[in-house]
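## Example record

The block below lists the input lines for one assembly entry, exactly as stored, with component labels intact.
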Amino acid sequence: METVLQPIGRAFVSGLETTGRLSIFAIMAVTYCVRPPYYPRLILRQMIEIGFYSLPVVGLTAIFTGMVLALQSFTGFARFSAESAIPNVVVISITRELGPVLAGLMVAGRIGAAMAAEIGTMRVTEQIDALTTLSTNPMNYLVAPRLIAGLAMLPLLVLVADIIGVFGGYLVSIYKLGFNPEAYLRNTMDFVEPLDVISGLVKAAAFGFIIALMGCYHGYNSKVGAQGVGQATTNAVVSASILILVFNYGITELFFAR
Amino acid sequence: MNFEAKTRGWPKIEIRNLHKSFGPKKVLDGVDLDVAAGESVVVIGGSGTGKSVMLKCILGLLQPDRGSIKVDGEEVVGMNGSERRRVMRKFGMLFQGAALFDSLPVWMNVAFGLIEGRHMPRDEAKAIALGKLAAVGLGAEVAELYPVELSGGMQKRVALARAIATEPEIIFFDEPTTGLDPIMSDVINELIIKCVQDLGATALSISHDMASVRRIAHRVAMIYNGRIIWTGAVDAIDHSGNPYVDQFIHGRAEGPIQMAAAYP
Ligand SMILES: Nc1ncnc2c1ncn2[C@@H]1O[C@H](COP(=O)(O)OP(=O)(O)OP(=O)(O)O)[C@@H](O)[C@H]1O
Ligand SMILES: [Mg+2]
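Predicted structure tokens for the full assembly:
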């Protein structure tokens, strides 16, 4: 009995410990986002890294998702002669769910990993210690710009993903399924509500924060050696992805469950 | 010695009974060490005996388990936030592994403490950085390169330039001449001597290079088993009467110091 319970108990305690440490890190990180000194150059650099260089990945994901949504809905809805609902299905699915979640997951893979690797390398090569000895707080200098950039850029990326995703659905509907272009667009615009888009953007901001937080946290606490940095990178991506899915449910519930 | 302290006076750093363990592994086990103002002390001792850990405890990069560290008479163990930053401004540190910022060009590395720590305008800081780079034998063409483009020895010299750029009161040199050729080693020795003599800095260094130790030290301290087992003037190291010191400075495999590899 003991041999069964002991590992479970130990896992539970270490889980609590990690949650505690992560929460403290998150609170500190947010505090340093609002506390001077600020580093506008570094924020800008991170914004370009996150916002601009993620565009191809996010754009490709969005366009194919929109396309496949239209195609699948058509084959499914044809059974009920409900093909006219395709524009609605595409725009709702993209803006509420697939835009933010898929963009979030793609950016988690790209940016979360890069942040953890960069900060982890700085940790193991003592660059973070060097920052401290040069009277610069690493939380201010490394963590805050990434959090701010993540928080600001993900909503923009998701807005772009929304537009490209709807456009993907439009392409398939018009050129493959023979929809009328004007009717399709009118249908889309009439149906979509501000709340659909806004909820998606709120999710995006939360995901951006989560991605940057996980990248920084795991990098910051990286164990020594190349293996430690590799582990930090993996942990950052996996934990960010899981948290994105969990928070996605939570935020959906907040917005739409009545 | 050719190098005498001018103002060796009040204690700049006082370490008492310093303990630090990593898990079950005791690294520092009651270190006592004083460094007087304007003095250059070199700590010698085997690899892995906790020399770098000692420096990091003084800088607050590692939290000691027990003991007291006073800088200018002020207790710094447990100090945090703005207090800690104020004390940190007195220090410059050359890290053993250079620890240059990969994302910044060489001159920005050197100027970092001036720009971020002292809020100096960038062009002014750059001029000073170029001067410090010249002092460590690196030309202006190196200034625009990134650290990965430099050899190990060049990185070490850039790190040295960074450590002294703000002309701190106290400078720590963690193995300043390791990885340098003999001539460059001597240039660096000269530079360290100059920092102490001309700028009146207090220096605490770590070195395995006995030639360098003899040049830059006023006083030598030997660390063994987590304690300082001997300190004395640099002239005294050849007749310290301490078998550990003798074995170390002559680099003999036989003696009271057993290297880890000798254990079963
Ligand atoms: N952050 C750390 N976590 C765990 N152990 C550490 C850490 N830093 C140092 N140690 C351990 O403390 C011991 C002393 O390390 P330290 O770097 O101070 O050695 P050193 O005397 O500087 O050696 P060297 O001359 O090789 O640089 C080593 O055994 C090392 O494994
Ligand atoms: Mg060392």
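DSSP finds nine helices and no strands in chain A. Chain A touches chain B through 17 residues (CB under 8 Å).
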